Amino acid sequence: MFEYIKDYKLQFSGALTPRRTTKRILLHHTSGGDAETVAGIHAYHLSKGHKGIDYNICVERDGSVAWGRGLTYCGGSVNNSAAGTRCMNDDSVAIAALGDFEHNSMPDIQKEALKRVARDVARYYGLVEVKGHNEVAGRGYTDCPGRYFPLDEVRSYAAGSREEEKTQAAEPGVNVPELKRNLRLASPLMRGGDVQAAQGRLAYHKAQPGSIDGIYGEKTRAAAIRFQKARIAEGYDLGTDGADGVVGPKTWAILWQG
Ligand SMILES: [Zn+2]
After folding, report:
1. pLDDT tens for residues 122-162?
2. Can you tell me whether residue 25 is helix, strand or coil?
3. Cα 212 to averaged position of ligand 1 atoms, centre (Å)
4. How remote is the CA of residue 29 from the centroid of ligand 1, in Å?
5. Domains of the chain (ranges plus CATH)?
């Protein structure tokens, strides 16, 4: 799903903090000129005493998409303590488009790449909330992401229509992230981005997993069983284990369908 994202192998000054919950996408511009690069922004944020680049993902002018901190770590992109935004670094995925969109419009190729990655992140975590930086921090505090930033267009595309998702999911293997382990109720409880993604998809299918917190607890197990029973009733083959409340490869694949 994210194979197209480039990795510049940025070196951070300390261990990054894994994000425990993911509630929204935050959109930024970097407000620099044409010479700006992901490595340059990384160096600048390091020089300010941050662990490195504040954004999880960067979208370059030529339509390339690159990892900043990576998908699963807390960011550092919102710091307006007066508006109480700092905590949003811990539950948001920050995506920055390189450029100054307070003064310039975004090249089409960059806009299409931004829309694609925003939608992939939204689908991966089952998110619906997409905000511009100044929507959470206040317009008096920052111009970011800029008045010419295609905020509403990205937002509606990221939310995606159900019809569009169905068409996409019909192509086998497209946009389905790889399942690296079976997800189940275990002791200690399983945690992680894969659990959160499964919860997001269970919620999307109205199986009521409770909070999408990345922890595989009783509610997640009950939701998985509800989802599996409903699919078995529709004629899906889940193998001999049936509705066991374990998200293995078969259940995972069906979760990502329309
Ligand atoms: Zn910003």
Report:
1. 988 888 789 999 999 888 889 999 999 999 999 989 887 44
2. strand
3. 26
4. 6
5. 24-160 (3.40.80.10), 193-255 (no CATH)
